[in-house]
Every structure is written in structure tokens, then in C-alpha cells.
Amino acid sequence: MTDTAKIIEITDAVVADLNTAKFSQAFTASREYVPAAELPDLETLRVAVVPKGLASEPASRSEQAVIHQVDVGVQKKLPAEASAVKAMADGMMLLVQEIVTFFNRHTPSNAGVTWVSTENDPIFLPEHFEELRQFTSVLTVSYQEIG
Q1: In the predicted model, is pLDDT for residue 1 greater than 60?
Q2: Using CA atoms, how far apart are residues 88 and 33, in angstroms rounded to an integer?
Q3: How far apart (Å, rounded) are the C-alpha atoms in residues 87 and 91?
């Protein structure tokens, strides 16, 4: 028996893998429990990885399949100049697409799970865009453990 919950092992592995991958924009991902940040803190691109959920079902007579879900939040404050908002949002949409592609068929290092799916719906949160003046996108990545 390990001293760490499996979902935390997976979340930490996802953080480590994101931090070693190359994307169009540089960032340092971190594991969080409460991904909310103050707007001034979002001047810099923020990628927060949060354990989201667990589900289990029989895989066979003697084994169960456990689905571990991890959320990956991508956030950045919008620029003050209206003319720069579209270009920044376009760059963030590209980054989100790159992260989705990264997760497709991604198996976290040393986590003992396999990738099941990646969801990004909606692709960004319009209410954050309008009300908070920030770009926010949340991806949910699901991994399966058989045991």
C-alpha cells in the first residue's frame, strides 16, 4: 500500500509530463486543489492540474476498472488593449489545442494507468472572458486503471 492516493500520483505525473513537453507558449504546470487565482496573478500564463473524480465498474469477474479524472485549467488575463485581445485569445486557443493533442493517447509516466479520453467542452469559458477579462479553458482527462 502506498502513502499517496492514486489520483494524486496520476495528477503529479501529469504535471511532470506537461512541464517537460514543448508547447507554443512556455508555462510551469502545478498541482492544485483550488485552481482559482487572483486576476493580477494571471498576467503570466497559468496551468493548474486538479484531481477531479473517480468512477469504478467491473472489468471482469475478478478485476475492476477505475477511471481517474484530472482537470487541466489554462488561464491568462486578457490584455487591456481591445486590439490585442483577439491575437492573445487566438494564441491561447492554439495552446489548448496543443495540450489536447499532447493528452491524446498519453500515458502519464510511472502512473500505471492508460488514457481513456480528453474532453474540452466548452473550449473556453465565455463568462470569464466577458466578466473577468480572462481566458479560461478546462480540459478533463480520463485514465483507466485495471486491478
Answers
A1: no
A2: 27
A3: 6
Q: Which amino acid is at 32?
A: E
Q: Domain spans of the chain?
A: 1-48+81-117+128-135
3-class secondary-structure state, position 34: coil
Residue 70's pLDDT is what?
A: 97
Q: Which helix (H) or strand (E) holds 6?
A: helix 6-20
CA-based nearest residue to 72, from 20, 116, 1, 138: 138
**Beta-carbon count within 10 A of 74 CB:** 23
33-82 pLDDT, tens digit per residue, is 987 776 667 889 999 999 999 998 887 888 888 999 999 999 999 998 98
Cα–Cα distance measured from residue 35 to residue 124, given in angstroms and rounded to the nearest whole number? 15
CA distance 1 to 48: 28
